[in-house]
Amino acid sequence: MATKRHSVFNLSIILIPWLTLLFIGKKSLKRYSISGIFIVIFEIINHLYGHRRKWWKFYDFRKSFIRDELPFSVGPYMPLSMWLLKYSYGNFKKFIILNAIADGLFAFLIIDLFKKMKVIRLNRLSHLQFFFYLHYKAYLLYGVQYLVDKIKGWNPYDNLHL
């Protein structure tokens, strides 16, 4: 059974990012949701693999993918991916830099904050390895969005955020 602190944490990492999508705009939500869904499914597969390899350790006693890793996959991944696509898609260099900043903050700072909060810590990965574990998916996300735009006939240089 999850502690109350762990349950509140899980609920917040799911709700807060998803609530931000209220401000992304209808066109952006429609345009980037397919890529967002794809990256969440891909991230769930990655988390299952990382769970099995024990790359990280949650502090609650019982190990549960649904209670531990799944909120990280379902919560921040899709909304953050959609926001990054909204503000940088069409400019690959900007997209990669923004992703590297977000992934670096998570891999080098936020994960240590979570460790101090006794939520999760890295187990068999260094911070740099964890950064690469997070970052390589940015290239996949951009490629999927490129294919979606090709299929739908959308121009990647449309500035929907203006």
Automatic annotation (TrEMBL):
Alphabetical keyword list: Membrane, Transmembrane, Transmembrane helix
Membrane-crossing residue ranges in chain numbering: 7-25, 31-49, 95-114
Domain of life per record: Bacteria
Protein's UniProt name: Uncharacterized protein
Naturally occurring in which organism (per UniProt): Niallia endozanthoxylica
